[in-house]
Design a protein that fits this description.
The chain has a three-stranded parallel β-sheet with strand order 3-4-5. A three-stranded mixed β-sheet has the order 6-7-8. The protein is globular. Helix 2 links the parallel strand 1 and strand 2. It is an alpha/beta fold. 46% of the residues lie in helices and 12% in strands. It has two domains: 167 residues, NAD(P)-binding Rossmann-like Domain (Rossmann fold, 3-Layer(aba) Sandwich); 125 residues, N-(1-d-carboxylethyl)-l-norvaline Dehydrogenase, domain 2, CATH 1.10.1040.10. Its EC number is 1.1.1.31.
């Protein structure tokens, strides 16, 4: 596993805990402290090797999974001529590797990396972006949207079942289809998060009890994943980042990056949108606010509810 951030940590943890104790897990992260901590925390479940570079991961592993923040990081992890995965000296030289790229990036960047893998005859490349956030990664309940040849899907499914729910693992089509699907999923999720935040903010300002309002929404036609599982309003879904100072989760900056990909895809395809522009403007403004930098994207509620910076009490 290359990448032990908010998503990669949970995935690597579940893999180490669920596979045979005779199998070795190779991990790498640019944050050496996180790398050492992971080895200390989970080596009791079986051998873990802390690699010094992505190149070393590919030299030691038969299956390489990558989870990093953005396209530029994916390109560096794969294509860096000194330290990248594709610079690996394979033993034996004809060893084939299954590369599973789990990051949410644009399909064009992923295709460029996939072509490099195939041109170098290194093995197979699969785009397998996931949904469920850091909570889902830690719990092993992620959803996967997979783009790969059908011949690879049984092997990919077996791996994804270690870190996701089988009922939420989908082959979307050939290479690139997983990423295209994931970008649209994030687009809709951001829309519903913004709509949920707006709705409950209106209710609070109108004197309604936010918990009762949300309970009714979740029993009615307004129910959505963000109202019931990952609510942007502190206190309404106590386990999620919004109820913990918006720490962890899917950052506002990463969310904005994916929304930009989705809006560009719509424009390139000539698909008419009504909600895309105002949503993108809202997330752009929120991401530029110093109060929200690095926080979970559900902080969009704080952007709406307290524009002048006053604190937000949790729902009682």
């Amino acid at each position: 596993m290359a990448g032990l951030g908010q998503m990669g940590h949970g995935m690597a943890k579940n893999i180490r805990q669920k596979i045979s104790s005779d199998s070795t897990v190779v991990v790498y992260d640019i944050n050496h402290a996180a790398l050492e901590q992971f080895v200390n925390d989970f080596s009791s479940h079986g051998p873990i090797i802390a690699a010094g570079s992505p190149k070393e991961v590919a030299e030691l592993a038969d299956i390489v999974m990558t989870s990093v923040p953005a396209a530029r990081h994916v390109k560096d992890v794969f294509l860096n001529p000194q330290t990248g995965l594709l610079a690996a000296q394979r033993q034996p030289p004809n060893k084939k590797i299954l590369f599973m790229e789990l990051s949410t990036i644009d399909a064009a960047a992923s295709t460029k990396v996939a072509e490099a893998v195939m041109e170098n005859d290194l093995g197979d490349f699969v785009d397998a972006p996931c949904s469920g956030g850091a909570m889902g990664a830690e719990a092993g309940t992620l959803s996967f949207m997979i783009g790969c040849p059908i011949r690879l899907y049984p092997q990919v499914l077996k791996i994804c079942k270690l870190i996701g729910k089988e009922s939420s693992i989908f082959r979307c089509g050939d290479l690139g289809a997983g990423l295209k699907t994931k970008v649209l999923n994030n687009y809709l999720s951001a829309l519903t998060a913004l709509a949920t935040a707006e709705t409950i903010n209106i209710g609070i300002r109108g004197g309604l009890d936010p918990k009762k309002l949300n309970e009714i929404i979740n029993a009615s036609s307004g129910q959505n994943f963000n109202s019931s599982v990952n609510n942007p309003v502190p206190g309404l879904t106590p386990a999620n980042p919004a109820s913990h100072g918006y720490r962890g989760g899917f950052s506002i900056e990463l969310c904005l990056g994916v929304l930009e990909l989705a809006v560009k895809a719509a424009e390139d395809l000539g698909a008419k949108t009504v909600l895309a522009k105002p949503m993108l403007e809202a997330y752009t403004e929120a991401s530029r606010d110093e109060r929200f930098k690095g926080k979970d994207s559900k902080v969009i509620y704080q952007y709406l509810a307290r524009p002048n910076g006053e604190p937000i009490p949790e729902a009682q």
